Amino acid sequence: MLARKSIIPEEFGLPGLASRMPRKPVFRDRVNKARFIAKNGSCNLAHKNIREQGRFLQDVFTTLVDLKWRFTLVIFTTTFVSSWLLFAMSWWLVAFAHGDLTSRPPDPEDLVLSTKNYCVTGVKSFTSAFLFSIEVQVTIGFGGRMITEECPTAITVLIMQNIIGLIINAVMLGCIFMKTAQSNRRAETLIFSRHAVIAVRNNCLCFMIRIGDLRKSMIIGATVRLQVVRKTTTPEGEVIPIHQIDVPIETAVASNSLFLLAPLIICHVIDKNSPLYDLSAMELQCSDLEVIVILEGVVETTGITTQARTSYISEEIQWGHRFVPIVTEEEGVYSVDYSKFGNTVKVTTPRCSARELDEKPSILIQTLQKSELSHQNSLRKRNSMRRNNSMRKSARSGAGMRRNNSGLLASPKVQFFTPSEGGVQVLNAVT
Prior knowledge:
The longest helix has 48 residues, at 362-409. The protein is an alpha+beta fold. The chain has helices at 14-20, 54-57, 60-66, 69-98, 126-138, 152-180, 183-186, 281-286, 354-359, 362-409; strands spanning 120-121, 146-147, 190-192, 196-201, 204-213, 219-233, 239-247, 257-258, 264-269, 289-299, 305-313, 317-319, 321-323, 327-330, 333-336, 344-346, 414-419, 424-430. The strands form six sheets. Strands 3, 4, 5, 9 and 12 form a five-stranded mixed β-sheet that branches. Strands 6, 7, 8, 10 and 11 form a five-stranded antiparallel β-sheet that branches. A two-stranded antiparallel ribbon has the order 1-2.
């Protein structure tokens, strides 16, 4: 049986009309989006399938410093215990080869007289040899155990153990010192704003972030670099998954050096050379880009170069916001309120890209005029509300005054007294 044809053509039916209607873009939250630099500054990069593992052993000191603390402490303990055991075995073999373990004086009082016949006095087992090894490597002061001039081999082992012990101490203690004095520890007190903002500054669309230093000791020669990391495709079809593009910033000096005494707002003017030049507010939310911020400088107290890093993805960039001021002057001292460090406030900003603003400057003018009109309207509403409130207060106070005046103007009662034989008699009271 053939299906009946509809009287209404298919292109004018509900499915056809729905397919031809323009649809608004739907923004979905990207789950577990990979970012190149984490918010704490660590690089989110995994190295796999490294075949030449021996290259790490060629730079043992850097490898030890880069290890985690638990592995460093295990290696520190294992190295010392292994050296003590190794030389304990050497001392036991020296005593065994010389025959010190079999011939012992029966009387302890004759020990002093018989020391010239032994390589090491007091070494009668492996345990005593291990204790003697610890004494040689840690301290050069001996108690009842000591070497004699009867055995040149023992003197050679003593020299070797002292030299190797000094090398182990230098490497291990240097590793521990470098791990405790790493430059990334200073970077923990260099903070960045949680979000970046895009707003109009000096009639230009600008990308802004805020940085600050929590310590009173300053960062000397601080410099800030911005990079945009995004996936790009060349005209030849080559796909570059991590394409780094340098972003210039606006600073007061040409050397790009910052005087990081108080929190500063780093501003990047979105111009023709900016990778954000063609992005509007809606396109920014759909784009897969990441802005990396790198702050470098020399620590004033230690002279070590430090680096702090963070990044901002498209979800962390607020369009049409501006940072609130946090530096105030109180009793001749500048005060910084870090509780408002990342706070922003909405401002009127065109939603179009910087390219459209350059091609049509009237958009910015119209936006600013609308914001001025809205500001004036809000001021008028506030003034009218204040007038109404003041009129209500005055009306209430006037009503209260009238009630008080009516009570004051009421005539008092008057009493008439007439004399009588028994005294004064009250005839009547008239109000």
